[in-house]
Design a protein that fits this description.
The structure is a single chain. By secondary structure, the protein is mostly helical. It is about 70% helix and about 5% strand. β1 and β2 form a beta hairpin. The longest helix has 28 residues, at about 150-180. The N and C termini lie far apart (about 45 Å).
């Protein structure tokens, strides 16, 4: 493992464990039962023991992050540098956003769970959008359809446009999270934008294959 890869892995792993440190500092202020599961409207669906939330869940996330990082580094030769780096920050960033929600709710702060869910998804989609144009067919993400796998031109064109679309959808999701805050229609718009990000590149790649057939 190269030194810069090791540093990136260590720093991102430290970020994953940051909620454990924060939870330890706030231990006496946290309730014994902490809300850990919310629906899209921010309503609590499930609670977990304080010790499990503060110490066990971050360790599970760390294990998943390390396994993902090792896989990213193993395939680094097949992916662009920017894509490999972006993949390694997805788990730490989402973990921080989720724990802001969890600890905020536990402390009785006016945290808007629905807003955080949409912002975290917007962030994730934006990261994937930035990485998409740099992904090869051996990457973990991508539109691995029969016609994209058969044609280099189709693969590259589809993923260039998918990357732009995903970034646009991510921006619209974040705007929607604030503009439609507290409105149930905001959830419907969020779902529509998610579906658009996934489906429209498939339709584009199909049309591209049809136009370049033969």
């Amino acid at each position: 493992m190269k030194k810069k890869d090791l540093v990136l892995t260590l720093v991102s792993s430290a970020v994953v464990l940051l909620p454990m440190l924060v939870g330890t500092i706030l231990w006496s202020r946290l309730p014994d039962q902490i809300p850990t599961n919310f629906d899209l409207n921010g309503q609590v669906k499930n609670y977990s023991e304080k010790g499990f939330v503060v110490y066990v869940i971050p360790l599970f996330i760390l294990v998943g992050h390390l396994l993902s990082s090792l896989r990213v580094l193993a395939k680094k030769a097949e992916e662009a540098e920017i894509a490999a780096a972006l993949f390694q920050w997805i788990c730490p960033a989402v973990s921080l956003i989720v724990y802001v929600d969890v600890y905020g709710k536990a402390l009785g702060l006016p945290i808007d769970s629905a807003l955080l869910v949409q912002l975290s998804m917007g962030f994730l989609i934006a990261v994937m959008g930035l990485a998409m144009p740099h992904c090869s067919r051996e990457s973990r993400i991508g539109y691995k359809l029969p016609w994209t796998l058969r044609s280099d031109e189709n693969w590259e064109a589809t993923h260039r446009r998918a990357g732009r679309l995903w970034i646009i959808c991510a921006a619209l999701i974040c705007v929607n999270a604030f503009a439609m805050r507290g409105d149930k229609n905001g959830t419907a718009i969020f779902v529509i934008l998610m579906l658009a990000a996934v489906i429209l590149p498939i339709l584009y790649s199909m049309n591209h294959a049809r136009r370049h057939r033969g």
